Structures are given as structure tokens and as C-alpha cells.
Amino acid sequence: MLTSLPVEIAVQDVAGVRLALQAGAARVEVCQALGLGGLTPAAGLIEAAVDAARQAGAASFVHVLVRPRGGGFVYDADEAAQVERDIRWCVRLGADGVVVGALDEAGGLDHERLARWVDAAGGLDVTVHRAVDAAADPVAAVVSLHGRGVRRVLTSGGAPDCRAGLAGLAAMRAAVGDELEVMAGGGVRVGDIAALASAGVDAVHLSARRPATRGRGGPGGGADAFDATDAEVVAAAVAAAREADAVRTSHAR
What subcellular compartments does it reside in (predicted)? Predict the structure, then answer.
């Protein structure tokens, strides 16, 4: 049973996809390199995530981050073309949505790039990620997405994390009305979910990760530890979202 306040989990492997399915999360954002803010994952991981969701009968579950590199959101023509090609691969592999974002040199959303990527996505859901939080005016950036084929925006309200961005999240939600879903993300902890629900967000996003080890790294292999999805945190987040949504619904009556 899914929570009424959707919980999205950022995952970097198929084990994370399965844990999110088992806990009742609404969807996953499949990515890699969360330490860099997330990058485009391998095609094999996307395909495996789609297979796991289909076997579980979970619709609209697999959303793929398409981001060519870390280090900001202003892209040259080659990088933008790479994003477009990766989006088309996501379509072929059966993903349900893509997560993208780009800024122009002036600090606004790069709508020319975004339009090409929305077109490449075809009928898939498009989420614009936290590039909006790096914009010169985050609220205006979110409002500018109206009517451009975008389903939702992932944002911390223009702040370093969602706790500092509660006022910004509420302002974004009020500004876009029913035209766009506002999903809170950026340092989300289970204890933050009630306050985020009170701010009116439509969903919450978190990585729920913990360090894990399996053998040794060493020269050429990087650090010993890697990120793994924490099943207990995912379950607690889903439970907190259900409780927060119940409180919000009762107050609305």
C-alpha cells in the first residue's frame, strides 16, 4: 500500500529498488555517484530497475536521473546532446520518467535545453531537479516551468537543505497551484517529513543511504566503503509520510 504523501527514494543499485518496493515507496530515482549530487546511471541498472518494478506490479515507479557530470548545471552543446541521447535510452529501456535540469549563464533555467529534453522524453514524466535551487531566483525558476511539459520539481526551497528551505517550499507550492508538483528534497531526514507536509509539498525525496563494505578497495579501486540503501530508514520515511498525511488531511476537514 502506497502512502498518500509519496516518498521517492534515490537509489544506486537494484537492491535499493527492491527495498523501496517492499517498503511502499511511491517511486525511485535511479542514479549513481550520489556523493556528487547524482549522475546518470548505467543502462544495465536502468533495465534491471524496470524489470524489478514490473515484476512487483509497480506502475510509474522508475525515474532516472540524467545528469552528465557534477560541478554545476550550465552545459555546453556536447553535454546537452549527451543528456538528450541518454533520455532516449531511458525511453527504450522502459523507464517511467526522467529527472533533468539546466541553467543558463544568467542563472535562470535553460528552457531551450529543457524543451529538447522534454521532447526526447516523449510521454514519460519529467521532473526538474535541484538545479532550480542554484538559480538566481529559485521561486521564479519554478514558476517558469508552467506549461512546459514538466510534471514535478525536486527542490529544497532554494536553501542548502529542506529544513532551511521550508518557507521557500511553501512559497513555491503557493505560486504554482495545481500546475506542478513540488517535491521536497535535499538533506531530508525522517524527522523532517511532518514539517515538510505542513509546508504543503506534494512528495518527499531522500536517499536513505548508509555506508557499507564488501571486500577491500585499495589502489585503483577507491575507498573500501560504498553507499547502500538503508531498509529501516526507507520504512520509517514511508511510515512518517503516512502519519503526516493523515494529520494534514484531518486539519483540512
Answer: Cytoplasm
